């Protein structure tokens, strides 16, 4: 048996304006630029060096290779430009609601305000529910991150208010430690998806 045959098939997919795909070497420089932008990282713990940024991209790429899915690189179909990542992941940190599958995104500031995060996230939810068969997908963000929370609402997720939690990977007393939790299950997604068709 070859090594390749032990891994599930790689999932890559298109939305109307975007391509969600496996990471490439050419993504590393624009990803570091994104990860160095204080506005992008306002509600995230920083990745201070190029080596840290490259290591994160390598981990994400390896998880996609292992599972067939993950935080995909997001590429604009009209320009071919890498604009960030969006996708699904099993959090490495044990959270109060673990085990779970999360949806997440991080896009370059120049790509904000154009609906790309919402479009990519809707595509990732469709893959998660239709192709991977997940029963529920969660999302979480630091309490003050209203932009990400708005995307979570736009893609049909609902805030689990009792589920607010202190993220164990964020230092105690850090301003970003308190997080909001959002959820969507397959039945709710199917109902919303059917209504929009």
What is this structure, in a nutshell?
By secondary structure, this protein is of the alpha+beta class. The protein is built from five helices and nine strands; from the N terminus they run E-E-H-H-E-E-E-H-E-H-E-E-E-H. The chain has one domain: Aminopeptidase (3-Layer(aba) Sandwich).
List keywords for this structure.
197 residues; alpha+beta; Aminopeptidase; 5-stranded antiparallel β-sheet; 4-stranded antiparallel β-sheet; 9 strands; globular
Care to describe what's here?
This protein is α+β, with helices and mostly antiparallel strands. The protein has a single domain, classed as Gcn5-related N-acetyltransferase (GNAT) (Aminopeptidase), CATH 3.40.630. Helix content is 31%, strand content 23%. The protein has 5 helices and 9 strands, in the order ββααβββαβαβββα. α1 crosses α2. The chain is globular, with a radius of gyration of 16 Å. It starts with 12 loop residues before the first strand and ends with a helix. The model has no long low-confidence stretch (mean pLDDT 94).
Per-chain topology:
Blueprint: E1 13-14, E2 18-21, H1 28-35, H2 50-67, E3 71-76, E4 82-89, E5 102-107, H3 116-131, E6 136-142, H4 146-154, E7 158-159, E8 165-166, E9 178-185, H5 186-196
Antiparallel strand pairs: 1-2, 2-3, 3-4, 4-5, 6-9, 7-9, 8-9
């Amino acid at each position: 048996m070859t090594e390749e045959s032990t891994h599930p098939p790689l999932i890559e997919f298109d939305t109307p304006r975007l391509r969600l795909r496996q990471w490439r070497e050419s993504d590393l420089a624009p990803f570091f630029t994104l990860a160095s932008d204080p506005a992008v990282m306002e509600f995230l713990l920083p990745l201070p060096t190029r080596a840290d940024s490259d290591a994160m991209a390598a981990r994400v790429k390896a998880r996609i290779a292992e599972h067939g899915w993950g935080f995909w690189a997001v590429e604009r179909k009209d320009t071919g430009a890498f604009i960030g990542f969006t996708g699904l992941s099993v959090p490495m940190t044990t959270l109060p609601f673990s085990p779970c599958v999360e949806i997440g995104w991080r896009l370059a500031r120049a790509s904000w305000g154009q609906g790309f995060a919402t479009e990519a996230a809707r595509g990732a939810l469709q893959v998660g529910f239709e192709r991977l068969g997940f029963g529920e997908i969660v999302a979480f963000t630091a309490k003050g991150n209203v932009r990400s929370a708005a995307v979570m609402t736009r893609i049909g997720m609902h805030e689990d208010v009792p589920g607010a939690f202190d993220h164990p990977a964020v230092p105690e007393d850090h301003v970003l430690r308190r997080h909001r939790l959002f959820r969507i299950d397959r039945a709710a997604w199917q109902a919303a998806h059917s209504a929009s068709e």
